[in-house]
Amino acid sequence: MLNTHFQYFSSPINDIKIPNKFTFPFYYEPHPLCEIATKEIIDYLKIQTDFDHNFGLNPSKKGIPIGKMFGVLVVKNKKNEIGYISAVSGKLAETNTHIKFVPPVYDMLTEDSYYLKEKNNLIAINSELESLEADINYNLLLSENKLAKNKAIADIQEKKEALNTAKKKRAIRREKAFNELSPENFILFKNELSKESLDAKHFFNNVKRYWEHTLKPTEDKLSVFTKQITNLKTLRKSKSVDLQMYIVEQYQFLNIKKEKQNLAELFSGTSVQNLPAGSGECSAPKLLQYAFLNDLKPIAMAEFWWGKSPNKEIRKHEQFYPACQGKCKPILSHMLSGIEMDTNPLLENPAIGKEIEVIFEDDQLIVICKPADFLSVPGINIQDSVYSRIKQQVKNISGPIIVHRLDMATSGLLVLAKNKEAHKFLQSQFINKTIKKRYTALLDGIVTENTGTITLPLRVDLDDRPRQLVCYEHGKPAKTNWEVIERKNGKTKIHFYPISGRTHQLRVHASHNLGLNIPIVGDDLYGKKSDRLYLHADTLDFLHPITKEKMLFTKKSDF
């Protein structure tokens, strides 16, 4: 394949050390070479005239503003020259072909492609369906049939109720006759009642047959339309599934050994219809695919956001982001096999050498200060946690112990129960929202207002766990009150008062463009990584499980 997207660095890079291992794509600090490549792509984006797209950076620009994720891959070519290639996630300006950016793994938009032909066939089926469902005669028949059916249902129901009423009356008459008539006369009377019953049933069946006969002509006319509609819907579904299957088979991903696997193989166990939307269209797979096809050795990679933030996810202009978990992890696990990578920092225990400070302890509970970067409960890969340490260190402790949690990155106060009864009482206060909590945070920017309330519903990002996103359709209510404490050196110290306790609530409410739009300093998920997340739970106010006395604890942050 002709290598047309390899770019030499415009800036000098001779003094920059080449990394020995490739970037771990799901958690990384961008290598200096990636930072330089990113700057060069940003410089290009600011002045380019190769395509027309509204990134939401110019208020006067026409079109719907849509930000995009871009990626850079530092590579070495066959001549041992260092350069880079770049990519954009998804299509850009309604096309996949760009001078600066590598092509997709599979281009569905090429002229006369099977995808476009089948897409047009589906559009034609939809058009025919819409035409049939809008047909005047069809809709008149629908109305006529509905009206007649409603009359039939009402009439049959009325006759059925009359039948049941007559049956009950016959039962009463039968019982009365049994008590008053001679045996011979009772037999005669019972025969009369049986005849009445048969006549009534016969009449009721005649009513049902009448309505079947009356409705049939209209239903026969309707069936001409409904059969066509049903057949078209069946055809549409079949063609849609076939097209989806065709597409996933065209996405053939390489690794450095030139081994291929398609989307269906990489997402085995997931039906074609349930594959994450846009799988294979992110920057990282595009970059690696192009590198392997053109014998370019991957050295380092980074992805960054350019443009307006989405309404749901948190994406900041010009900020670096890791590859997503849901769509990219299965793909990149294959594509990067055989390449030596940086170690996964998420497998390393950041709590080594850190101690839990006990603030208060009695025979019912313990109040501790959890250090930053310390799990509240054991994780999938790391067992060291508040729970495991307290269980080992504290004698005569039983029950669930953990009443509430703090994010691993967050420091601050936690109350722990020493027995099941205390746990139940303390937990009920969290459930009933009678416990008062306050957090101190340092925000990476200036908040102009002094106080406020944020109400943004949250749910997990299914394509990129554990990140949370704002979702008014499926999100759970989340409310945070806040007040500014100090503004200094371009940053804002703030107090948060969470009314609800959603995962990452304060972090998302701070960073999201519909919240404060300023991330917490050191937030590696929703802002920029630093030495720690500058979020600390400094106040806890609750009732003691035995004495019922108010207990107020404070632990000032060290920032």
From TrEMBL:
CDD domains: PseudoU_synth_RluA_like
Keyword Transcription tagged: no
Gene3D superfamilies reported in the protein's UniProt record: Pseudouridine synthase
Domain Pseudouridine synthase RsuA/RluA-like intervals: 364-512
GO molecular function, one term: pseudouridine synthase activity
Official protein name in the record: RNA pseudouridine synthase
SUPFAM superfamilies: Pseudouridine synthase (SSF55120)
Domain of life assignment: Bacteria
Biological process according to GO: enzyme-directed rRNA pseudouridine synthesis
Naturally occurring in which organism (per UniProt): Tenacibaculum finnmarkense genomovar finnmarkense
Pfam families according to UniProt: PseudoU_synth_2
